[in-house]
Amino acid sequence: MNIHDPKVKSDSQATSSVSRPSREEAEEAVRTLLRWAGDDPAREGLLDTPARVVRGYEEWFRGYDEDPEAMLQRTFEEVAGYDEMVVLRDIRYESFCEHHMAPIIGKAHVGYIPTDRVVGISKLARVVDAYSKRLQVQEKLNAQIANTLQTVLKPQGVAVVLEGEHHCMSTRGVHKPGVSMVTSTMLGVFREDRETRREFMGHIGNPVNRL
Ligand SMILES: Nc1nc2c(ncn2[C@@H]2O[C@H](COP(=O)(O)OP(=O)(O)OP(=O)(O)O)[C@@H](O)[C@H]2O)c(=O)[nH]1
Ligand SMILES: [Zn+2]
C-alpha cells in the first residue's frame, strides 16, 4: 500500500473522519466473523459472545478516545533544580498490530532530561497506554510516544525503547514464538550525545540480553 497516495487516508484523517457504527452493527460484524470461522452464532455458548467482544474492543481500543497531550499538562517545577535523567523502565504495554489485529505485548522504557519542570511519572505510562490501545505498528507507536513527550514537555531530550512480541508472528504466519522486536527513538541530547544515550541504555539494561 502506498501511504502517499492521496486516496489513502493518513492516520490522523482516518481516526477523525470515520463515523462509528452502532453497537448493534459492531455485534453483527462479530456474528459474521463467527459464521466465517465455521461456527453457529445462535448456539447457546456464543449468544453473548458478540456483546463481550464489543466490550473487549472498548477496552483494547480505548486509546482512540484519549488525548495523550492533555495527560502531560500538569507539571512540577519544585524539584530542587533536578535536571538529570528520569527513566521509567519495564512499562508493560498491550497493543494490536494494524496488519492483523493480533496482540503486540511488550515493555516500554521511557527516559527524558527535564529542562525546568518534571511530569508525574504515571503520566509517562499513561501516554504509552493511550497510543498502545490503538491499531499500531511498533515503529509508529515508538515515534508517537517520543514525539509527544518532546513536543509537550520540551525537555532536553527524550528516549523511548520498545520491546514487543508480535502475536501475528508467534501464533500464525511464520510461527516464531519468543521473538522480540526492539525499536528506539532518540531525540534531543539522546540523539546528539553518545554518553547520554549510553547512560539511558545502562539504566534500562540491554533489552536483548534481558529476554
Ligand atoms: N515493521 C513492522 N512490521 C510489522 C509489524 N507488525 C506486523 N508486521 C509485519 O507486517 C507484515 C505484513 O505483511 P503482509 O505480507 O502484508 O502480510 P501477511 O501475508 O499476513 O504476512 P505474514 O505475516 O508473513 O504471513 C508482516 O511481515 C508482519 O510481520 C510492526 O509493528 N512493524
Ligand atoms: Zn501483525
TrEMBL record:
A single GO CC term for this protein reads: cytoplasm
The protein's name: GTP cyclohydrolase 1
Signal peptide boundaries: none
Using the UniProt annotation, give all residue ranges assigned to the region (Disordered).
1-26
Superkingdom of source: Bacteria
Q: Where is the composition biased (Basic and acidic residues)?
A: 1-10
Quaternary state and interactors: Homopolymer.
UniProt keywords (A-Z) are: GTP-binding, Hydrolase, Metal-binding, Nucleotide-binding, One-carbon metabolism, Zinc
Methyltransferase in keyword set: no
Q: Which InterPro entries match?
A: GTP-CH-I_C/QueF, GTP-CH-I_N, GTP_CycHdrlase_I, GTP_CycHdrlase_I_CS, GTP_CycHdrlase_I_dom
The record lists Zn(2+) as bound by: C97, H100, C168
Ranges where the GTP cyclohydrolase I domain occurs: 27-204
- GO molecular-function annotation terms? GTP binding; GTP cyclohydrolase I activity; zinc ion binding
Q: Which biological processes are named by the entry's GO terms?
A: one-carbon metabolic process; tetrahydrobiopterin biosynthetic process; tetrahydrofolate biosynthetic process
According to its UniProt record, this protein's enzyme class is hydrolase
Pathway the protein contributes to: Cofactor biosynthesis; 7,8-dihydroneopterin triphosphate biosynthesis; 7,8-dihydroneopterin triphosphate from GTP: step 1/1
State the organism's lineage: Bacteria, Pseudomonadati, Pseudomonadota, Alphaproteobacteria, Rhodobacterales
| UniProt-listed PROSITE patterns | GTP_CYCLOHYDROL_1_1, GTP_CYCLOHYDROL_1_2
Task: State which Enzyme Commission number(s) the record gives.
Answer: 3.5.4.16
Q: Where is the composition biased (Polar residues)?
A: 11-20
Q: Which reaction does it catalyse?
A: GTP + H2O = 7,8-dihydroneopterin 3'-triphosphate + formate + H(+)
Q: Which family does it belong to?
A: Belongs to the GTP cyclohydrolase I family.
